TrEMBL record:
InterPro entries: Trm112-like. It comes from Methanimicrococcus hacksteinii. NCBIfam families: Trm112_arch. This is Trm112 family protein. SUPFAM superfamilies: Trm112p-like.
Amino acid sequence: MKKETLSVLVCPACRGKLTVKSEIETDAEIISGNLHCGACGIYYPIEDKIANMLPPELRDTF
């Protein structure tokens, strides 16, 4: 996920602001980690540079 993308993303559940906790990153990209919504508390995983913005109950169905 490009770091610059974070400025336009919002939580799909409540439209709250997202913050990132990266585990692996480069200067321009987040390779793995989590996006966290401060308003509703939901975490969205980032794996292989892709943010999974599905609600938690749907993540394992695809």
